[in-house]
């Protein structure tokens, strides 16, 4: 393993460097954008490229434009410098399952097979993770609900605590069929859905996929999922290849998502989007 | 019924529509509904719905204090619409009820203004006599609020965000409880590690934990847990809860979580403490005695137990010969042998001769046990209670059934 | 939501766009995520590729080491600084290789000798087998009085893995090394 | 634990035989010795005391011997007690391999009277009475033993009730006097019993008048009583008459010849109180035979009349030989009825009470000594107290309770 670790170390250094440089530019770009927003506030800042069928926002043009401007930004919440390949490596994110358990759809993300174990390519994981964090932050930024899901008994309390502390939602318990697809009768109200589901593990048991993935896909709810080498990623909107069993890895993901959500909420307040009279932290 | 006019009959029947079963779902107040429609101003509603401000505009938007428009979620809008519809319906029903009540008062020839609910009940029983056994199945006329099930309050705010962070689990309170237990457990583990490091693996906790015990209490019942959580908790989940709590309580440092554990435990009442111990009196010879009475089946006995004594037993002026069968003598012996007073007390019993010897012996035994408690200490009293000596036997003769020879015995029946 | 519940058709984005296009959903009712997912769509899945085995040059050295030499025994895991004997061997091998002074064909023996000079004595499988056979003989001569049926050496060896004589043997190994 | 205690509560005297349960119950209480038979470590009672006396002559028994057992020699048992003792008692004695009687106050009292009595007066009468199983027969036995040692002639009826009941008995019209009925079998049985009891005492006794049985058979003056008995045993038809002759001769000669006669009748009340119709004695015409119509009863009643002297009458009255409806009380006045009481008057009633606690302890000690109580908890002090409570110190009940231990 020593050669490999050395190699990884080298790669990690590279990525840290690039990250730092990227971050600087991103920050400067963000500043420019904000200034632009301030200057052109009220005017219609066209954000989309071509779709006619998706008209411009209606919910208060001012705020919409701010949000859309933020969307234009590559890294509006500065999430790219949060994590490096080295961090991922140290959190054992690269460790996949036994090669015999490999899911076909995951093979592009697998670096190689080392002594019968799949090694996940962290070079690919990192951008996907950053992308997912960005999407998550944007949804929170716009006031969306995020539901964190996991069926890992070992890390369950940490997931729930994170969700509670950032004022979002969590469901780490046995999934009753139809929580999304039959919500109106289960909750006996007009159904409420989260705007994003984050799966910190996509498996319910070792044999079955989490039912929430299919349900959220059916109900047009975007999903982010950490997929291990033995998982199917086809029903997820955003997938992050990575180890989903090791507590260290889960704690890393939790730290990242916590940061993303907190930053997004802070930004939301800062940008004046948060007008809701109801405090929905813990009640 | 023939004397009623068609109109009164109609209104009566209309009023009687309230005879629906009042299947109550969870806590929900009508204060909220009234609040939102400005009926009652006092509105001290119990549930979390008071947090929601009363929306007055129907277009789903409201001016917040900051002057910006606040979007009301569709779910909340739908809820509010339904709440309003329900309240309108209830208003109509209440009006119907009031009219029906006045009609009823007129039919009965009483003053409509001072016609109370009791009068209504009486009138309905008189006008529509029913032979149905089940009381709830009989005709009734009641306040609609007593008959219609209460409505569930919204679990989410105006923006459509649920209040509870475990809302999507469908049992937020239950799972929040499990979450609490899990974290308490984690805290204890951390604490244990810390102590082990500090004291070299030997935390001295005897001093602190001495008064922490589960012996005097038991876990709350399933129903109690349901009431506490205001949620339906299936049996399986309740057992899961018990397992987790047992695990927490079994931790060596569980005494640190005593307060938390105590909220889910109910004390076992020491019944012998609430037991009435007869007074010790002194007779003219200077002997102390206690009097008690007991019952079994139809038989009642009054007993005086003298101490010190020589084991003399007098029952209705006879000695123990009164019971020729040893079984009955043995039943008298047991409380004495349990308390170690055989041959040390004298017993004088007066028992009604009605009933069989079993009933008489049982009545005397109960009375003797009760009287003997005056002469023994607390622990023996508890032993007596545990042995069932201080509990009245509630069984009585089973009634004879028609078509049968006795309570259970059937007539002889031969096909041919 | 009114979208198709057939989750295998397209992605959530295309399905929602279909709704909007068909007018089944009004533009102002669109979900929050729509703009975001549209602006930041999921990254395309890279093309499928064959998963290779990860091998390093040192693997071949280590493989030959284990083929030649018997298992040198337990490794202390609690001390992370101490290197195991195979690791020492591999390091020395690569070091010698880096120097380039030795012929590649003799590199393995050179490494053995170099380690032997430091006092690390490696035992080949043959030597181990011979030592074991000897102890087996003595053991057998002792045991024969009691259990005459353990005559076949192969089976008896399997049986004796946990026998005390085996332990003695291992202990001897350590003694020799120190 | 709770269940167990309750289960024990159900049949608790069985606690003695189910000690395992109570032991468990007691372990919880950490071995406190409150719960009597449940004492985990059964220790032998320290109430064990002297329960035996070596004085086997009832003449020497005084109040000091009360509560102590004395052994009756084997020879006397065979001669005197065969057929006198109740079967259960005899069985118990056989089991114990010795024949012991407890000296009790009533019999000591009666023996004292007999010792100091002036026999020139008409016969004195004593009646033992008491509850069932209180020991009336045993007291009678003691008295009989006393008299036997004094060489009295025994006229003993083991159970008078036998003569007035039994619907299928052989009943014959009396040969002596019409209107009376004979019980040939019973009379013969009694004769043999009498002969065994008084084997060596009848040698000198001869009849004082002539008795004509039939035209051909007669007993001349001076016939030995032994021959009369033999005749009765050979000719069942005249056995009842033989009994009458025998009793008459004894009555007449007692004072003259100077031998003393003890008339001991068990459950004498059956002489006076008719039995219920179902179980009563019936003649060949299926008509009820009242007690006074039975010749045996008639003859024995004469022994109770104060017409003779130099003898004594000791009887018992017994609830058991009265009809089911006439068992409310155990006093002689109630049991004898108006007629019997008047017939008997004057007499000395002697109450046979239940055991006193000393006597009960003595009896239990005796049982333990004979290994009759084998349950180790029954041998403890607390166990003894339990037995005494349940049996109410009634001797027969005491035996019954102990028989299962």
From TrEMBL, chain A:
PROSITE patterns: RIBOSOMAL_S2_1. Keywords: Ribonucleoprotein, Ribosomal protein. InterPro entries: Ribosomal_uS2, Ribosomal_uS2_bac/mit/plastid, Ribosomal_uS2_CS, Ribosomal_uS2_flav_dom_sf. One of its GO terms (cellular component) is ribosome. Belongs to the universal ribosomal protein uS2 family. PANTHER family: 30S RIBOSOMAL PROTEIN S2 PROKARYOTIC AND ORGANELLAR, SMALL RIBOSOMAL SUBUNIT PROTEIN US2M. This is 28S ribosomal protein S2, mitochondrial. It comes from Aplysia californica (California sea hare).
From TrEMBL, chain B:
Residues 407-416 have a biased composition (Basic residues). The keyword Ribonucleoprotein applies. Gene3D superfamilies: 3.30.230.10. Keywords: Ribonucleoprotein, Ribosomal protein. Signal peptide: none annotated. Residues 39-65 have a biased composition (Polar residues). Residues 392-406 have a biased composition (Basic and acidic residues). One of its GO terms (cellular component) is ribosome. Residues 39-69, 391-416 are annotated as: Disordered. Pfam families: Ribosomal_S9. The keyword rRNA-binding does not apply. Belongs to the universal ribosomal protein uS9 family. PANTHER family: RIBOSOMAL PROTEIN S9, SMALL RIBOSOMAL SUBUNIT PROTEIN US9M. This is 28S ribosomal protein S9, mitochondrial. The gene is LOC101858595.
TrEMBL record, chain C:
Residues 168-178 have a biased composition (Basic and acidic residues). Residues 135-154 have a biased composition (Polar residues). It is found in: Mitochondrion. InterPro entries: mS23_dom, mS23_dom_met, Ribosomal_mS23_met. The keyword Cytoplasm does not apply. One of its GO terms (cellular component) is ribosome. Keywords: Mitochondrion, Ribonucleoprotein, Ribosomal protein. The keyword Mitochondrion applies. Residues 2-119 form the Small ribosomal subunit protein mS23 conserved domain. Pfam families: MRP-S23. Residues 128-178 are annotated as: Disordered. Belongs to the mitochondrion-specific ribosomal protein mS23 family. This is Small ribosomal subunit protein mS23. It comes from Aplysia californica. The lineage of its organism: Eukaryota, Metazoa, Spiralia, Lophotrochozoa, Mollusca. The gene is LOC101862090.
Automatic annotation (TrEMBL), chain D:
One of its GO terms (cellular component) is ribosome. It comes from Aplysia californica (California sea hare). It is found in: Mitochondrion. This is Small ribosomal subunit protein mS29. Keywords: Mitochondrion, Ribonucleoprotein, Ribosomal protein, Transit peptide. It comes from the Eukaryota. The keyword Mitochondrion applies. Pfam families: DAP3 (PF10236). The keyword Glycoprotein does not apply. InterPro entries: Ribosomal_mS29 (IPR019368), Ribosomal_mS29_met (IPR008092). Belongs to the mitochondrion-specific ribosomal protein mS29 family.
């Amino acid at each position: 393993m020593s050669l490999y670790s050395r190699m990884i170390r080298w790669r990690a250094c590279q990525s840290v460097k690039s990250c730092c440089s990227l971050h600087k530019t991103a920050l400067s770009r963000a500043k420019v954008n904000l200034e632009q927003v301030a200057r052109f506030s009220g005017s219609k800042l066209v954000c989309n490229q071509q779709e006619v069928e998706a008209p411009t926002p209606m919910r208060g043009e001012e705020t919409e434009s701010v949000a859309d401007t933020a969307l234009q930004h590559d890294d509006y919440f500065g999430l790219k410098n949060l994590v490096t390949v080295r961090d991922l490596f140290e959190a054992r994110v690269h460790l996949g399952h036994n090669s015999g358990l490999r899911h076909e759809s995951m093979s592009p993300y697998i670096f190689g097979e080392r002594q019968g174990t799949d090694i996940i390519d962290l070079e690919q994981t990192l951008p996907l993770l950053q992308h997912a964090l960005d999407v998550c932050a944007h949804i929170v930024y716009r006031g969306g609900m995020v539901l964190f899901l996991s069926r890992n008994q070992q890390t369950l309390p940490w997931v729930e605590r994170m969700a509670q502390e950032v004022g979002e939602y969590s469901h780490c318990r046995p999934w009753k069929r139809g929580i999304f697809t039959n919500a109106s009768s289960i909750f006996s109200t007009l159904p409420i859905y989260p705007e994003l589901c984050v799966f910190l593990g996509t498996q319910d048991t070792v044999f079955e996929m989490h039912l929430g993935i299919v349900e959220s896909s059916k109900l047009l709810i975007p999903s982010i999922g950490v997929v291990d080498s033995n998982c199917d990623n086809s029903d997820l909107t955003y997938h992050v290849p990575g180890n989903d069993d090791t507590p260290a890895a889960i704690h890393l993901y939790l730290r990242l998502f916590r940061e993303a959500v907190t930053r997004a909420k802070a930004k939301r307040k800062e940008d004046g989007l948060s007008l809701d009279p109801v405090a929905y932290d813990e009640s | 019924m023939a004397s009623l006019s068609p109109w009164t009959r109609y209104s009566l029947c209309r009023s009687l529509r309230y005879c629906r079963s009042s299947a109550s779902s969870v806590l929900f107040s009508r204060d909220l509904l009234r609040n939102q429609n400005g009926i009652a101003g006092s509105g001290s509603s119990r549930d979390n719905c008071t947090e929601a401000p009363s929306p007055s505009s129907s277009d789903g938007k409201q001016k917040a204090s900051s002057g910006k428009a606040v979007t009301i979620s569709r779910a909340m809008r739908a809820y509010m619409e339904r709440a309003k519809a329900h309240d309108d319906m209830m208003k109509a029903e209440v009006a119907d009820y009031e009219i029906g009540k006045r009609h009823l008062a007129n039919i009965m020839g009483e003053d409509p203004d001072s016609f109370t609910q009791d009068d209504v009940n009486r009138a309905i029983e008189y006008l529509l006599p029913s032979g149905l056994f089940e009381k709830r199945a009989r005709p009734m006329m009641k306040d609609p609020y007593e008959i219609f099930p209460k409505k569930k309050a919204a679990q989410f705010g105006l923006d459509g965000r649920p209040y509870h962070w475990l809302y999507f689990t469908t049992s937020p309170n239950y799972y929040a409880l499990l979450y609490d237990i899990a974290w308490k457990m984690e805290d204890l583990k951390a604490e244990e590690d810390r102590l082990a490091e500090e004291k070299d693996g030997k935390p001295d906790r005897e001093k602190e934990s001495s008064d922490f015990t589960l012996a005097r209490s038991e876990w709350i019942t399933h129903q109690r847990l349901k009431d506490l959580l205001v949620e339906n908790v299936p049996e399986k989940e309740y057992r899961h809860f018990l397992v987790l709590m047992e695990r927490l309580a079994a931790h060596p440092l569980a005494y640190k979580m005593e307060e938390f554990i105590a909220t889910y435990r109910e004390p076992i009442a020491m019944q012998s403490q609430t037991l009435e111990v007869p007074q010790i009196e002194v007779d003219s010879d200077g002997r102390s005695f206690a009097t008690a009475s007991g019952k079994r089946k139809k038989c009642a006995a009054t007993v005086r137990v003298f101490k010190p004594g020589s084991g003399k037993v007098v029952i209705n002026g006879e000695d123990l010969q009164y019971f020729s069968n040893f079984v009955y003598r043995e039943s008298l012996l047991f409380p004495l042998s349990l308390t170690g007073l055989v041959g040390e007390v004298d017993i004088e019993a007066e028992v009604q001769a009605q009933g069989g010897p079993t009933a008489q012996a049982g009545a005397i035994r109960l009375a003797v046990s009760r009287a003997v408690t005056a002469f023994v200490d607390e622990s023996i009293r508890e032993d007596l209670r545990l042995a069932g000596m201080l509990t009245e036997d509630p069984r009585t003769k089973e009634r004879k059934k028609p078509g049968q020879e006795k309570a259970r015995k059937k007539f002889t029946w031969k096909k041919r | 939501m009114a979208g198709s519940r057939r989750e295998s058709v397209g992605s959530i984005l295309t399905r929602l766009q279909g709704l909007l296009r068909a007018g089944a959903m009004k533009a102002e009712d669109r979900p929050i995520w729509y703009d975001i997912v549209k602006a930041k769509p999921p990254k395309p899945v890279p093309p499928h590729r064959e998963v290779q085995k990860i091998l390093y040059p040192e693997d071949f050295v280590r493989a030959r080491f284990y083929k030649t030499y018997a298992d040198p025994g337990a490794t202390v895991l609690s001390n992370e600084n101490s290197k195991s004997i195979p690791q020492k061997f591999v390091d020395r091998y690569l070091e010698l290789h880096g120097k380039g002074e030795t012929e590649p064909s003799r590199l393995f023996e050179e490494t053995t000798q170099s380690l032997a000079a430091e006092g690390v004595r490696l035992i080949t499988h043959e030597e181990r087998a011979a030592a074991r056979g000897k102890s087996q003989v003595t053991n057998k001569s002792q045991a024969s009085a009691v259990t005459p049926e353990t005559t076949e050496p192969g089976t008896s060896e399997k049986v004796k893995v946990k026998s005390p004589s085996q332990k003695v043997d291992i202990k001897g190994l350590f003694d020799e090394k120190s | 634990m709770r269940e167990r205690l309750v289960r024990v509560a159900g049949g608790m005297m069985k606690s003695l035989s189910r000690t395992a349960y109570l032991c468990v119950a007691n372990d919880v209480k950490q071995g406190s010795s409150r719960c009597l038979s449940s004492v985990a470590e059964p220790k032998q009672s320290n109430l064990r005391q002297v329960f035996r006396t070596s004085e086997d002559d009832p003449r020497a028994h005084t109040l000091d011997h009360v509560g102590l057992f004395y052994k009756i020699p084997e020879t006397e048992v065979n001669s005197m007690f065969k057929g006198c003792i109740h079967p259960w008692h005899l069985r118990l004695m056989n089991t114990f391999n010795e024949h012991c009687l407890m000296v009790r106050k009533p019999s000591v009292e009666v023996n004292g009277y007999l010792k100091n009595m002036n026999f020139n007066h008409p016969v004195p009468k004593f009646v033992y009475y008491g509850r069932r199983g209180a020991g009336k027969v045993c007291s009678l036995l003691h008295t009989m033993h006393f008299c036997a040692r004094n060489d009295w002639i025994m006229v003993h009826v083991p159970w008078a009730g036998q003569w007035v009941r039994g619907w299928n008995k052989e009943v014959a019209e009396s040969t002596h006097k019409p209107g009376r009925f004979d019980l040939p079998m019973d009379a013969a049985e009694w004769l043999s019993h009498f002969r065994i009891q008084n084997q060596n005492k009848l040698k000198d006794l001869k009849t004082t008048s002539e008795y004509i049985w039939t035209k051909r058979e007669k007993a001349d003056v001076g016939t030995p009583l032994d021959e009369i008995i033999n005749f009765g045993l050979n000719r069942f038809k005249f056995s009842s008459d033989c009994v009458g002759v025998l009793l008459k001769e004894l009555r007449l000669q007692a004072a003259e010849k100077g031998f003393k006669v003890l008339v001991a009748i068990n459950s004498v009340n059956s002489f006076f109180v008719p039995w219920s119709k179902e179980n009563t004695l019936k003649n060949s015409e299926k008509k009820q035979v009242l007690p006074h119509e039975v010749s045996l009863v008639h003859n024995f009643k004469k022994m109770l009349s104060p017409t003779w002297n130099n003898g004594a009458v000791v009887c018992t009255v017994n609830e058991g030989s009265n009809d089911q409806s006439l068992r409310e009380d155990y006093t002689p006045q109630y049991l004898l009825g108006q007629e019997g009481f008047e017939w008997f008057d004057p007499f000395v009633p002697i109450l046979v009470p239940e055991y006193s606690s000393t006597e009960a302890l003595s009896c239990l000690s005796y049982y333990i000594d004979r290994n009759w109580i084998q349950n180790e908890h029954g041998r403890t002090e607390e166990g003894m107290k339990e037995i005494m409570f349940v049996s109410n110190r009634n001797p027969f009940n005491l035996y019954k309770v102990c028989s299962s231990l």
